[in-house]
Amino acid sequence: MIALVGAATCGRSDAGGGVPPSIRYDQHVFAGGVAPPAGSLTNPLHGDRSSAAAGEKIFSAMNCDGCHGGGAVGWVGPSLVDGRWRYGGADGAVFQSVYYGRPRGMPAYGGILSPAAIWKIVTYLQAQPIPPDVPTEGWPARRAP
């Protein structure tokens, strides 16, 4: 019975544009170089300050800062606030990275977090100011031993 319900809902998406299609667990982490399903998602919370504040709390509660550092400035995982996005920085692309996961360490949180919670994280990340680049031209050259 559960398998029939899962099969019946697989591939459906929310008409509002804020919810991706349902997927099976084994489809959550894509192999290297394979993009998530095409289609644009619209962030229903874009620019909402209270959602951004809630997203910051979810980011910390889910230990995202364990990989991405406090304030999402980067640590083991890449910075999420420097304006450089490996898989695209639009709201929908960031949502898909969190929902589906990415190769080389980013787990999938779709099914663990609700789409609304993921949108709050996206809203938090997008609300962060992009810091200025640090020039590296003046740094002393490192020489091989």
Describe this structure in words.
The protein has 145 residues and is mainly alpha-helical. The protein has a domain at 63-130: Cytochrome c-like domain (Cytochrome Bc1 Complex, Chain D, domain 2, Orthogonal Bundle), CATH 1.10.760.10. Helix content is 33%, strand content 0%. The N and C termini lie far apart (65 Å). 24% of the residues are buried.
Give me a quick take on this structure:
The chain is an all-alpha fold. Helices cover 33% and strands 0% of the residues.
SSE diagram, text form:
Blueprint: H1 2-9, H2 49-61, H3 65-68, H4 91-100, H5 115-127
Helix pairs in contact: 2-5, 4-5
Major sheet characteristics: none
Q: Taking Cα atoms only, what radius of gyration do you get, to the nearest Å?
A: 17 Å
Number of helical stretches of at least 4 residues: 5
Give the H and E element order. Answer: HHHHH
CATH fold-type name of the domain at 63-130: Cytochrome Bc1 Complex, Chain D, domain 2
Name the CATH class of the domain at 63-130.
Mainly Alpha
Mean pLDDT across all residues, rounded?
A: 79
In terms of structural class, how would the helical and strand content be classed? Answer: mainly alpha
- Counting DSSP E segments of at least 2 residues, the number of strands comes to 0
Strand content: under 5%
Give the full name of the CATH homologous superfamily of the domain at 63-130.
Cytochrome c-like domain
Tell me which CATH architecture of the domain at 63-130 applies here: Orthogonal Bundle
State the share of residues found in helices, binned by percent.
25-40%
Unreliable segments of 5+ consecutive residues? 1-15
Straight-line distance between termini: 65 Å
What is the overall shape? globular
